[in-house]
Amino acid sequence: xxxxxxDTRIYSRNKFKLGLFGMNCxxxxxxxxxxxxxxxxxxxxxxxxxxxxxxxxxxxxxxARWHGYKGEIDSLGTTFETLTWACGLLASTKEITTFGTxxxxxxxxxxxxxxxxxxxxxxxxxxxxxxVSGWNPLEFGSMGVDLRDHDDRYAYTREWLxxxxxxxxxREAFDYDGTFFKLKDVLGKPKPWWNSRPLLVAAxxxxxxxxxxxxxxxxxxxxxxxLEEVAPKIAYFRKVSPSDQVRxxxxxxxxxxxxxxxxxxxxxxxxxxxxxxxxxxxxxxNLKGSRPNSWMKQQxxxxxxxxxxxxxxxIGSYDDAIETFQKLHALGLNGLALGMINxxxxxxxxxxxxxxRMERVGxxxxxxxxxxxxxx
Length: 376
Description:
There is one protein chain. The protein is of the alpha/beta class and 376 residues long. The protein has one domain: Luciferase-like domain (TIM Barrel, Alpha-Beta Barrel). It is 41% helix and 16% strand. The chain has 14 helices and eleven strands. Helix 2 packs parallel to helix 3, helix 8 (261-274) crosses helix 11 (302-308) and helix 12 (318-330) packs across helix 13 (347-360). The longest helix has 20 residues, at 150-169. The radius of gyration is 20 Å and the shape is globular.
């Protein structure tokens, strides 16, 4: 068992870390009608989590979603709530860090603080919080919550997080008199595992979002529409972040790899052009306030890219994927949150082909040694 939060797997010395992203949602990251598309059943989620845990992957990251992308199959329309999802998977795994993704406007911070402490105890310090300010007006409307102006959302998030951190830390009851919250006699017990707060992650793409993530999170996620945009983004994060605050910078990616590049490209054509849910992709591309609108709007073939997932596409041979990982690492990225068409059926490509190649080029240590090499 880890001796401190710094000993958990996500802080291992692997140069390029990997996690599974979005498997709590029907279809995962993809908008395809292909019959093998991801079915987000609980049994499948546990199976994929245990495969990732056994292989030495660092984390599991869910998507908080309350409305899907409609179309013929309503991809991402069937989802598990992420804090209870995290609790179940933390109880079903041994070493992998598992995040809950939380729209802070939808949950009282005192209530959420206790929920997350519960998850942290279940996982013995392996729980992390992915902080979401939100953007989808449909989801806010379904909750009966006003969608504040963009900057006000982050002001609310900062205050919300300050309360949560205070609940986790304070030993005596306290009052809180803020802009958004007026609280009396607040006290939370038990405290987080190891009496240290859970890992915090955030994704920032706007300037204010990047500043929030860089100053309040331990790890952050950023979008990479193209390789050319990686280095400037990472340089900005490192510049504005307090010294040693952000220890890992990740991006999301859709991984579609096969033995040869042609096999991968043929499979991509099958997923997108033979079975793509183009109605759903069009809806996602034009949804007001969506991430595709904000950071992918200049991309060519946007809807085709959305069908395989909005993350950075890695489509090719196993060696092509390793070459891309090396480039991303050289640009300063610490790892990727991976989407796949089917997290169980596609996982052998990662376990049996990708991970051994990463070890051979020095991006990862052999799994049996990874924990012993954790940062102390």
